[in-house]
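Supplementary Note 2. Why include the ligand at all?

Several targets in our set were suspected to adopt different conformations when bound, so apo predictions alone were not considered sufficient. For every target with a known small-molecule partner we therefore ran a joint prediction. The input for zinc ion is given below.
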Amino acid sequence: MIDSWIQSKIGLPQGEALTRSAIESYQLERLRATLLRAKSSSRFYADKLAGIEPGDIADTSCLAGLPFTFPSELTEQGTGMVCVPASEISRIVTLPTSGTTGEPKRIYFTEADQELMIDYIHHGLRVMTGPGDVFLVLMPCERPGSVGDLVRVGLERMGVKVIALGILPPDGSRDAEVLELMQSEGINSMLATASAAVRLAAADIQAKKGCGASMRTLLLSAEYVSDEGRNFIEAAWQCEVFEHYGMTEMGLGGAMACEARSGYHPREADLIFEIIDPATGAPLPDGEPGELVFTTLTREAMPFIRYRTGDFSRWIPGDCSCGSVLRRLDRVGDRKLLKGY
Ligand SMILES: [Zn+2]
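The joint prediction is reproduced in token form.
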């Protein structure tokens, strides 16, 4: 359970129970510090947050009174959001946008920002893998600091053997080679997009070689996952499928399914999520679907304040059967949730 990791990250003494109020008072303190830093270190936030006194924020519900940050602002004024000198930037990720201008988004990271993701992998993935496992990474991993590379470092820190191949071509031209590798290396855990995992499982069934026989757990990320896709993979390989939601702006990792696999627990020591009405911007009560908005609490290079993801989810009401006190987001992007929008 990632609660013990969150507990140590928020500085709660060992033996003291992690509670909602402990998380929220930590978040409030980090939110104030983030606003203060953003205002004083970046042109963009100095303008956006003019007139806002971070010290006056009395609780995290005050977030609703702060302005949103839109993806379009990231393309127009991205560099204006950076809060550290250029010499402290260790990685810049350029993301294409679907807009008509064609201006890409650029997301800036310091080394400490990248360490946040490595640490998340190191602790957050314990639910599905551990020392002695052989883990296949089918995400971009060629460059240092790319998502697959950070996952590799985090898992190796846990004592897992990692084979990082990168993204497979969508035409399936490398699938047979990957299936053989799965068999020869005894790969028992994997990170992939849903489309790649479904394609590999289907190719394995067709080839009748049972290359996925040792597969025990599989993590799907970066794409919407349907129940059909998840069930197909689980049946083909007799493995347990976990789902993750995140995006580069979030620092890659966002929220992950637990062993109960009923919703995704956000990493609440690094991020505050909100669900808002996309038309009015008003916060929505638990259970009601709306747009997912996040605020970063620990990022150095480029903090995000109320960033509009354009993704849809809802808070699942009630406690999770895994015993975690972390909140639960429903599967992001599920069409059922989009009705009415
Ligand atoms: Zn749970």
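Residues 138 and 192 are 5 Å apart (CA to CA). The mean pLDDT is 92. Comparable summaries for the other entries are listed in the accompanying table.
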